[in-house]
Amino acid sequence: MSAPALRLSGVCKNFGVSQIIKSVDLEIVQGERHAIIGPNGAGKSTLFNLVSARFPVSEGRIELKGEDITGLRPYQINRRGLSRSFQITNIFHNLSVFDNVRCAVLWPLGHRYSFFRRLSGLGDAGDRADEVIDQIGLARRRNQPASVLSYAEQRALEIGITIAGGAEIILLDEPTAGMSHVETENAVALIRQVSEGRTLIMIEHDMSVVFDLADRISVLVYGQVIASDTPACIKADAAVQQAYLGTAVAA
Hints:
- By secondary structure, the chain is of the alpha/beta class.
- The chain has ten helices and ten strands.
- Helices cover 35% and strands 24% of the residues.
- The chain has helices at residues 44-51, 74-78, 97-105, 123-135, 151-164, 181-194, 207-213, 231-236, 238-245, 247-250; strands at residues 6-15, 18-28, 33-37, 59-64, 67-68, 82-84, 169-173, 199-203, 216-221, 224-229.
- Strand 7 (169-173), helix 6 (181-194) and strand 8 form a beta-alpha-beta unit.
- It has a six-stranded mixed beta sheet with strand order 6-7-8-3-9-10, sandwiched between helices. A four-stranded antiparallel beta sheet has the order 2-1-4-5, covered by helices on one side.
- Helix 3 packs across helix 4, helix 3 (97-105) packs parallel to helix 5 (151-164) and helix 4 crosses helix 5.
């Protein structure tokens, strides 16, 4: 039996005397689409920051595909197959769509930093970048600066950057936040497509998106996971209804 894509064991995070994440145990199997939901301030983004090593863990252990990654640097975790997007769009606004994606494919293709080599000569990087751009539906915007893209297009570009390196495990932090209904539908279709064959872990407040995409859902409240189960079971969970969903959503 293969190791889980991600396992958290007794993970805690303290900021001074405040404990934001409280002994979280969580296991996500490979190939699963897993949503983390909870009220504002529950610690969801903090949890992502611990997994991706933006914050150090105060206590506990994090494993990626059976390997202990606790204490590793963000780039080391990324090179082990985990990539993430952010709640606030994180792209190079002055670079073209193509150059944004090409930056993300260089290291996975084996290209290291060099002052004596032109990017235009790296045909494999260009080809891979174009594949990703086609996949995220931005081919017609290929040569335009990222700054002129609509908000939804910028989010799609960030997802493209997230998957460009071939990561097996992708973390998306509120990928549809601030989108219209139509934009959300397009984003869900894109996420479904790019997560095929990968493990997806996402933070999302839109319950229609969560129940449409997720195989399993974990509910985080005050830094603790109070439930982790299938969407149907989460809807029916009385503790979840009281803490977060509300009876209207759960009905």
